[in-house]
């Protein structure tokens, strides 16, 4: 599933390829399933228009336009984007295509069709409607403190709450808690101010690291917990010889379910 680092990579890719080009046509393969409004209304808002910029909150991407309406993109389980010119290069799972007058095309890809495209008039209005908190990449200690205030639930599922830290997915939450040395089932209201500050810093650091690596997880630093997850057993892993042990203390990594989600942690470092 595309997480915040992937979506940020998509955002930067669109910024580099698809801005300030007049849209000549729009095609949506399955509008009833993947478009959140009538196809004619969608085309009417975008034909002869141009993308002028991008924004992102969590895993939600926004394409700003010269004439006002903002395209919203959520990538579901398998979403991606592509930019190309020749019809022969059209990706297999191109579900929506924006045709530019210069001959190039921007495609929204989605093999499983769980992604959604829509329009909004305001990013702020969309954020309020969806009850999205402040973006996790720039989340401050003060914002996190406010989001966790008086919460008695375990910290792990709270980090997955998009009202608190939009963009934190399951593996990111595990990594953040490992880097902050916090136990996943620790009740949030027991965290001390210094621990909340450490947690906020870890969220920003883990996400910035993932974005710098363009979400290629095997390129992450060797001291990251992600290399000890069960699915990361390829020889390319920097810790291939200890891929189920803590990179700090070599204690075997444990797995349990917290809030219904598979959770990896070090029982020695995250007491």
UniProtKB/TrEMBL annotation:
One biological process GO term for this chain? base-excision repair
| MF-aspect GO terms | class I DNA-(apurinic or apyrimidinic site) endonuclease activity; damaged DNA binding; oxidized purine nucleobase lesion DNA N-glycosylase activity; zinc ion binding
Database matches in Pfam families: Fapy_DNA_glyco, H2TH, zf-FPG_IleRS
Q: What is its EC number?
A: 3.2.2.23, 4.2.99.18
Instruction: Report domain Formamidopyrimidine-DNA glycosylase catalytic positions.
Output: 2-115
**SMART domains tied to this protein:** Fapy_DNA_glyco, H2TH
Q: Which residues form a coiled coil?
A: none
> Any keyword Chloroplast?
no
Task: List, alphabetically, the NCBIfam families matched.
Answer: fpg
Name the chain's protein.
Formamidopyrimidine-DNA glycosylase
Organism for this UniProt entry: Rufibacter immobilis
The gene that this protein is the product of is mutM
């Amino acid at each position: 599933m595309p997480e915040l680092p992937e979506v940020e990579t998509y955002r930067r890719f669109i910024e580099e390829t698809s801005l300030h080009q007049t849209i000549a046509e729009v095609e949506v393969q399955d509008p009833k399933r993947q478009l959140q409004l009538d196809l004619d209304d969608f085309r009417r808002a975008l034909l002869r228009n141009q993308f002028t910029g991008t924004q992102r909150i969590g895993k939600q991407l926004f394409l700003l336009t010269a004439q006002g309406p903002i395209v919203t993109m959520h990538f579901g389980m398998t979403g991606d984007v592509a930019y190309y010119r020749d019809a022969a290069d059209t990706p297999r799972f191109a579900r929506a295509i924006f045709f530019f007058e210069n001959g190039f095309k921007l495609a929204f890809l989605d093999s499983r069709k769980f992604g959604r495209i829509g329009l909004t008039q305001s990013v702020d209005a969309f954020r309020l409607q969806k009850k999205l908190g402040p973006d996790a990449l720039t989340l401050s200690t003060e914002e996190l403190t406010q989001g966790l205030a008086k919460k008695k639930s375990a910290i792990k599922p709270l980090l997955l709450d998009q009202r608190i830290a939009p963009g934190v997915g399951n593996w990111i939450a595990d990594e953040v808690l490992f880097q902050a040395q916090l136990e996943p089932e620790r009740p949030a209201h027991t965290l001390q101010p210094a621990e909340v500050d450490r947690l906020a810093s870890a969220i920003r650091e883990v996400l910035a690291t993932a974005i710098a690596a363009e979400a290629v997880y095997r390129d992450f630093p060797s001291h990251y917990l992600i290399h000890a997850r069960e699915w990361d057993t390829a020889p390319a892993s920097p810790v291939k010889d200890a891929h189920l042990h803590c990179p700090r203390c070599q204690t075997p990594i444990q797995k349990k379910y917290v809030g219904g989600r598979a959770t990896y942690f070090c029982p020695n470092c995250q007491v």
